[in-house]
Write a structure and sequence with these properties.
The chain has 354 residues and is of the alpha+beta class. The chain contains 9 helices and 5 strands; from the N terminus they run αααβαββαβααβαα. A 5-stranded mixed sheet has the order 2-3-5-1-4. It is elongated and about 160 Å long. The N terminus is likely disordered.
């Protein structure tokens, strides 16, 4: 029992040591205590050859200026550069331009990662279309694609960036190499292990190492994709007329002349747009007129019926008043006749009775 415990302790110490070597093999301060394979990897990792520019690259950087993002490193270097380009462009031929961009991406061996096109027509400024494209272009053909965009549209804004991920890439490779060595040692120990606890401990560590290797390899594949295929974010706006580029200050006369010409052009375009919108809206206008005519007809019939009802009511009321007047006159005639008869039957007072 004591022998098994000692064996388990030795194996656990060895595994911990291997883990420590795998996590610190790329650090210079741990190189003295790391195993021989870790020292070799650290030496390779910190080798100057990995980051060495040739003379042509250095001269190209000097000509482009300090901090330039457009320097192209020659193919024989081992640097890992992720290039990203943002372009805002204007076009007067929206459909044609989008088609040519898609065809150019295919011809260069790239692909469109995402496409978003909005808008409906070319009739009014509020309906002008726009597109947001994300293109992945092989890094070696990036300049060809940017030149195509520049030649076929009006560039209003362009920015480029380059991210050097060489250190991260080399660090990830060193980690994978250390983990593979550790995995091999663990497999050898697993083949010799006989104690259950030792086998369980080794299996757990082997699983962890395998997971870490897969994770780091996934990171390398992602970096390779970003390095091999540059990303271009292209925002395209449909315009009637390109935004003018002012290269030098304008005089007062030039400003007035250009402003007057632009105002006159806007007025003409406004008239044309109004006529076009009017013609386009004719079906709606016709339907509105028909609907309005129906409403007017219904209102006219309703008013006419209402007038008839009121007229009949007035006629009925007039007849009723006439009937009441006739009856009143008849009563008056009867009363008058009764009064006359009463006067006739009353004896005349001639003084005899006195």
């Amino acid at each position: 029992m004591k022998k098994k415990s000692i064996l388990s302790l030795i194996i656990s110490s060895l595994v911990i040591g291997l883990v420590g070597c795998g996590g610190s093999s790329y650090k210079s301060d741990a190189a003295a205590t790391a195993p021989a394979y870790a020292e070799e990897e650290a030496a390779e990792y910190y080798s100057d050859d990995l980051y060495e520019f040739n003379e042509a690259d250095f001269e190209a950087m000097k000509e482009a200026g300090e901090g330039s993002e457009n320097v192209e490193v020659s193919e024989n270097t081992n640097r890992k550069i992720i290039k990203t380009v943002n372009i805002n462009a204007e076009t007067e031929e929206f459909d044609t331009f989008i088609s040519t961009v898609s065809a150019k991406v295919d011809s260069l061996g790239g692909y469109l990662e995402s496409t978003d096109i909005s808008g409906r027509s070319f009739r009014d400024d509020s309906y002008l279309r726009y597109a947001n494209l994300t293109a992945r272009i092989p890094s070696k053909r990036l300049n060809d694609f940017v030149s195509h965009i520049t030649e076929n549209s009006n560039i209003t804004n362009k920015s480029e960036s380059a991210e050097d991920v060489t250190l991260n890439y080399a660090d990830t490779e060193a980690r994978i190499s250390s983990l593979r060595t550790e995995q091999q040692r663990l497999n050898e120990l697993m083949a010799q292990a006989q104690d259950i606890d030792t086998i369980i401990t080794l299996e757990q560590r082997i699983t962890e190492v395998r997971y870490e290797i897969e994770s780091f390899e996934s990171q390398l594949r992602t970096l390779d994709n970003k390095v091999d295929y540059s990303t271009v974010y292209l925002n395209v706006n449909e315009v009637r007329k390109y935004t003018p580029v002012v290269t030098e200050p304008q005089s007062f006369g030039q400003r007035v002349a250009e402003g007057f010409a632009e105002s006159l052009s806007n007025v003409c375009e406004g008239v044309v747009d109004f006529i076009a919108e009017l013609i386009i809206a004719l079906p709606y206008i016709f339907v509105f007129i028909v609907f309005l005519a129906i409403i007017v007809l219904i209102a006219f019939l309703f008013i006419r019926i209402l007038i008839r009802i009121i007229k009949k009511a007035d006629e009925k009321s007039a007849k009723k008043r006439q009937e009441e007047i006739r009856k009143a006159e008849e009563r008056h005639q009867k009363e008058l006749k009764k009064a006359q008869e009463a006067n006739v039957n009353t004896p005349v007072d001639n003084g005899e009775n006195k």
